[in-house]
Specification:
CATH topology of the largest domain: Rossmann fold
Oligomer: single chain
Structural class: alpha/beta
Number of helices: 13
Length: 363
C-alpha cells in the first residue's frame, strides 16, 4: 500500500477513536489523599438503644436474663453455636452474655457465656424484647395478655401518663406506634394487652380495672392520667369507668376514643346472622350488637363525670358515625381524621388530635 494511503488510514482511525473517547463521560478524578487521614470507629454497642442495652446488662448482671428470655421469647429454641468469631460482631457484652449482629445479613442473636443462643431476630425485635414490649405482632398473639407494656417518657418535663387500649382482633402491638409517639412527646405510656375474643366485655372491663388500680397505686396523686383507646378498647374503658369510685374517676383528666362502637356495630349483627356459631366462638362479638338489650348498650354511666373526646375515621366501614356517639355523657367532643377504621392506630393525624385534646380539652 502506498505510504500516503497508509498515512490517511492512520489519521482517519485516530480521529474516530478520539471522537468515540469524547462521546463517553469521563470518571471524576479521585480526591487527593489527605496528609493525615483519620478513621473513627463507632463503639460496638452504639447501634443499640441505650435503654435496651441497659436492660440487657442489668438482667445479665443479676442472673435473670435466661429466665426472662425463656418466658418472653416465643420463637427460639436454645441452640449451641460456634460463638460467632468470624461472621458476627458483638453489639453488647455483660457477664459472658453477648448480643451479636451478623456481618452479612444484619440479623441478631443473644448468646450466653457458653455460646448457647437464647433469642434471635432483627435488632429492633431484640430491643423491644429486652424492654419488655411486644416485639412483633405474631409473638404478641402468643402472649397470655392482661398486662401493661411500658414506654417511659423520653423528654422532660413529663406531661403525665397515657394508658392505651387496642381494639377487637388485635393485641398491644397494634397500639405500640401510638405508645412510642406518646413517650416521645413526654408521656409515660402504658399499653394494655388483652386477648379480645376470649371474654365478655364485662370480664374484660373488670380485669382491666384490676390492672389499672395496681398501676394507679404507683402514680403520684397530682400526675395527669389520660386514656387513648381504639375501637373495642373504648368500650372496655367504659365498663371499667362504670365500676370505678368517684375518686378514681376524678384522677382521669380525659379520655380520647378512636372509632368506639359506643352504640354497637352492624358488623356483629351481620356476622352472627350469617353464621350463628361466630357468636359462640367470640364472646366479645355478641356483646357489640346494635340491639337495645346488647351489653354495649347497657353500660352504666361513671360515678363522676369524665371529659371524653372521640376521633372518627373519614372512611370507617366498621363503625358508623352515629354509632360512636355516647348516650347520657354531656360534654363529649368529636373530630374526624382521614383514613379507615384499622388505620387509626397508625395515623399521625389521630395522634396529633389526641395530644391536642390531652393538653387543651378540645380538638
Amino acid at each position: 500500500m502506498p505510504s500516503h494511503i497508509k498515512t490517511n488510514v492512520f489519521l482517519t482511525t485516530s480521529l474516530l477513536l478520539g471522537l468515540t473517547f469524547l462521546a463517553y463521560p469521563q470518571p471524576a478524578p479521585l480526591p487527593a489523599e489527605p496528609a493525615h487521614s483519620v478513621v473513627t470507629t463507632p463503639k460496638k454497642d452504639s447501634l443499640m438503644q441505650a435503654s435496651a442495652r441497659q436492660a440487657f446488662e442489668n438482667m445479665a448482671a443479676n442472673g435473670t436474663l435466661a429466665d426472662f428470655l425463656a418466658t418472653r421469647n416465643t420463637r427460639n429454641i436454645v441452640t449451641p453455636t460456634m460463638g460467632g468469631d468470624v461472621f458476627w460482631r458483638d453489639l453488647a457484652e455483660c457477664c459472658g452474655w453477648r448480643i451479636q449482629q451478623n456481618a452479612v445479613f444484619n440479623n441478631c442473636r443473644i448468646l450466653d457465656n457458653e455460646n448457647y443462643r437464647h433469642a434471635w431476630g432483627s435488632l429492633g425485635y431484640l430491643e423491644e424484647l429486652l424492654l419488655g414490649n411486644p416485639p412483633s405482632r405474631l409473638s404478641n398473639y402468643a402472649e397470655p395478655g392482661y398486662c401493661f407494656y411500658k414506654y417511659p417518657a423520653e423528654k422532660a418535663p413529663k406531661r403525665g401518663v397515657v394508658i392505651l387500649l387496642h381494639g377487637l382482633g388485635n393485641r398491644a402491638h397494634n397500639m405500640s406506634g401510638m405508645a412510642k409517639k406518646a413517650a416521645a412527646a413526654g408521656y409515660d405510656a402504658l399499653n394494655y394487652d388483652y386477648p379480645t375474643f376470649a371474654e365478655h366485655i364485662s370480664t374484660h372491663g373488670q380485669r382491666f380495672l384490676d390492672a389499672f388500680r395496681a398501676e394507679l397505686a404507683g402514680i403520684p396523686p397530682g400526675e395527669d392520667i389520660f386514656f387513648l383507646t381504639h375501637s373495642l378498647g373504648g368500650i372496655i374503658v367504659r365498663v371499667a369507668l362504670a365500676k370505678m369510685t368517684p375518686a378514681e374517676c376524678e384522677r382521669i383528666k380525659c379520655i380520647v376514643m378512636m372509632a368506639p362502637p359506643n352504640r354497637g356495630s352492624y358488623w356483629p349483627d351481620v356476622l352472627i346472622k350469617a353464621m350463628p356459631s361466630v357468636g359462640e366462638l367470640s364472646k366479645t362479638l355478641g356483646d357489640l350488637r346494635t340491639a337495645p338489650d346488647s351489653p354495649v348498650n347497657q353500660i352504666p354511666l361513671p360515678a363522676a363525670p369524665v371529659k371524653i373526646g372521640i376521633i372518627r375515621a373519614s372512611m370507617d366501614m366498621k363503625v358508623a358515625e352515629h354509632q360512636t356517639k355516647l348516650n347520657g355523657i354531656p360534654g363529649d367532643k368529636y373530630t374526624e381524621v382521614p383514613g379507615g377504621h384499622w388505620q387509626l392506630p397508625l395515623s399521625d393525624d389521630a395522634f396529633r388530635a389526641a395530644e391536642t385534646f390531652f393538653r387543651t380539652g378540645a380538638f
